[in-house]
Amino acid sequence: MQRNTNTATVVRSRSTSIVETNSVIRNTYLLLSLTLIFSAFTAWWAMVNQARPMGLLVLPIYMGLLFLTQSLRNSAWGIASIFAFTGFMGYTLGPILNMTIQGFSNGSQIVMSALGLTGVIFLSLSAYAFTTRKDFSYLAGFLFVASTVAFIGSLAGIFFHIPILWLSVSAAFVLISSGMILFETSQIIQGGEKNYIMATISLYVSIYNLFISLLQLFSLLAGRRNN
Questions:
Q1: Burial, 68: exposed, middle or buried (Cβ in 10 Å; 0-12, 13-18, 19+)?
Q2: Are 79 and 28 in contact (CB under 8 A)?
Q3: For 169-193, what is each residue's pLDDT tens digit?
Q4: Would you say the pTM of this structure is higher than 0.85?
């Protein structure tokens, strides 16, 4: 009798876990879609209004909004916070896109190529993670170290204007962002991430970094500067 009771408890626990995971998956991708659309709108708004690059001011605002979203992740205000975060990140894209389009004769093609490849990579990696159901949690340590090294490389690139350094850093961030998408999607599927707001913001940041890195790569490798 005791064994039957324990078995029923395990079954109920697993069923509850599956329902919770499916709910996180559904809410995450719905919220991700909405934030990407809103981010695209704020990027367009910044482009139309010829917004200027914010420089180093971006970092404290980014960290502040990220901290705010993490603090509010378990409340309804977390939704407002994540839209503030992604809207701001979209706004910072506006000046970058304008510089690319205006600085290169094939700037529009570069932007569309980076955007298209970002979508293909994200959808392909997500489909792979959902299809195989593999646990990619083992990537955590490697991704942390690689991100740290790439970040230091990007800081060095600010002071030393060496094209091959920027090329290497951009290529590294493409690989790191791709790995993060696999890792984060796996966390959602495996039930490691139970908060859909945090799952959304993690995927959004990976997609954002992937797009920016591809944009830099295409600009360095295929950009034709205006005379």
A1: middle
A2: no
A3: 888 889 999 999 999 999 988 877 8
A4: yes
